[in-house]
Amino acid sequence: MAETNLQDIGEDRSLLLVDDDEAFLRRLSKAMEKRGFEVEMAGSVAAGKAIATARPPAYAVVDLRLDDGNGLDVVEVLRERRGDCRVVVLTGYGAIATAVAAVKIGATDYLSKPADATDITNALLRSGDELPPPPENPMSADRVRWEHIQRVYELCDRNVSETARRLNMHRRTLQRILAKRSPR
């Protein structure tokens, strides 16, 4: 599905984007508007829940981790207010447990960042029976490892010793990994 046309989207083209990264939110909003969606943006869980309650959209893209809480709280409100809303959960911290939680709560799909507007549009418009196509440029094994280490590091409040203990890794080895740039 290279180009989206308005028939693919349907009559109700309302789309809620919830992400605390303002630059990403603006870029994604413009890209989704070009694809025919009527976009409304929220930069926090509170704003996302308010919009979901007042004007439940037909589609939503929600970041999992937001400054003021968990994006799954917005997904729950969307499911209560509009059961047919197609929701894609985005996160920079891809993990099986959070993917399962997102789908159980009612997310249509779950994508790891960086996801582009085409990936998101395809996920929003995919029918339930279709299997997603394999990614065109998947993360390398080194990048997946680095992302996992970063996620655990953040969960340990950036405490190197605690992160090293949880990863069963020597503290100095972890410090060297954290000092390097992220792999591609």
From TrEMBL:
Entry keyword annotation includes Nucleotidyltransferase: no
Signal peptide: none
CDD domains associated with the record: REC_RegA-like
InterPro entries cross-referenced by the UniProt entry: ActR_PrrA_rreg, Bact_response_regulator, CheY-like_superfamily, Sig_transdc_resp-reg_receiver
GO BP: phosphorelay signal transduction system
Lineage start: Bacteria, Pseudomonadati, Pseudomonadota, Alphaproteobacteria, Rhodobacterales
Superkingdom to which the source organism belongs: Bacteria
Protein name: Photosynthetic apparatus regulatory protein RegA
Keywords: Activator, DNA-binding, Phosphoprotein, Transcription, Transcription regulation, Two-component regulatory system
Function (record text): Member of the two-component regulatory system RegB/RegA. Involved in transactivating anaerobic expression of the photosynthetic apparatus. It is a transcriptional regulator that is responsible for activating expression of the puf, puh, and puc operons in response to a decrease in oxygen tension.
GO molecular function: DNA binding
NCBIfam families cross-referenced by the UniProt entry: ActR_PrrA_rreg
Record-listed 4-aspartylphosphate modification sites: 63
Start and end residues of each Response regulatory domain: 14-128
Species the sequence originates in: Salinihabitans flavidus
